[in-house]
């Protein structure tokens, strides 16, 4: 099961991690390189902590997913899940490659539009869309709104009428299927807050067809994230196919099925989710229905494309116990290990250090929380004060979940593309931490 500890087998070595990350290479002179660019050179210029994203890795993975669908004979619209990494440079890169966007907030909608995404290639998901966000989306003419409840459907109808527009919608169906992933990232069980209960979907779809300002075109489903097996997908899609046949038999039209996202990656040594297998599951369960199809990948294309660079502040010895490697990188930068007990590979930037015999160490951050821990009893080459490391597979749900907890400025972000690199977000200054804060006049003398 993804993101769940403890593991019982040995940690993969540095060499084993690099073997499963073809965009990363260890050069004997330059150290760890991403898409041919030395990460030490970036750290020298920008400092650490620092996020680095490989543009060509992202492109190739998105196109592999597109090719998998095409080779299965499926015409599938691909909408990148913006929540995975919402930087304007990332969205602009994907827009230039012809992909759309799946958004879950008005802020993400504004980002997608700012990056040049056509509104008609944007899908609006999410369980709690505000009236203002829906007005924004309907006014812009987004391609599809995935409706999560009967109550939301009525709100959309009223807003569309007020604006004199027609909102194209699907009903997001909760198929009550266990995705076998971490409890905090599963979304397709009846106990989860997401979607319309399966047994209510047919009647609500008929109701949607009667509402003014609504054009109901089909169904959507999304059962979770970091899914490594196609079995949950097939179970969910089989239920959606059953639903389509039911509503068609009742005289309703179904044109679209949005298959969601959630395909998992290999953080440790688990087999990565395969786009070709996902395409096979879609074709097997939905290929006979004569509908337009869509998917919403996020983690799978961009997760492996990113690394988080950090430096060792202290090597804190503890006698015969495993030492603490205290990094300048913390849970406010990368929350996943603290939030999900997530496992991320850790690789030295130095080729010399990477080749040394490994020993157990605890890798922690400087934040005043015991949960500020990246790895416990991890087998790593010995590293000392000033050593640099890369935390792997942090392109998704990394920078986008960062905070300034402990008044720690947001880290710089860098895009590597076609053999060169560029800063795409400057490191936040300490003064910028409070630039929007207002001190009441009667307290101003104390600041």
Descriptive notes:
The modification N6-(pyridoxal phosphate)lysine is found at residue 83. Specifically catalyzes the decarboxylation of meso-diaminopimelate (meso-DAP) to L-lysine. This protein is α/β, with parallel strands linked by helices and 447 residues long. The protein folds into two domains: 14-54 and 304-434, Lyase, Ornithine Decarboxylase, Chain A, domain 1 (Beta Barrel); 72-301, TIM Barrel. Helices cover 29% and strands 25% of the residues. It is built from 13 helices and 21 strands. It has helices at residues 14-19, 39-46, 55-71, 88-96, 106-114, 131-140, 150-163, 198-210, 231-249, 275-286, 299-302, 336-340, 351-354; strands at 24-27, 31-34, 37-38, 50-54, 76-81, 100-103, 122-124, 144-147, 167-174, 196-197, 214-220, 256-258, 292-295, 306-318, 321-327, 346-348, 359-364, 373-380, 388-392, 412-417, 420-425. Strands 4, 14, 15, 16, 17, 18, 19, 20 and 21 form a nine-stranded mixed sheet that branches. The protein has an eight-stranded parallel β-barrel with strand order 5-6-7-8-9-11-12-13, surrounded by five helices. α3 packs parallel to α10 and α8 (198-210) packs across α9. It is globular, with a radius of gyration of 23 Å. 47% of the residues are buried. The model is unreliable at 1-5 and 182-188 (pLDDT under 50).
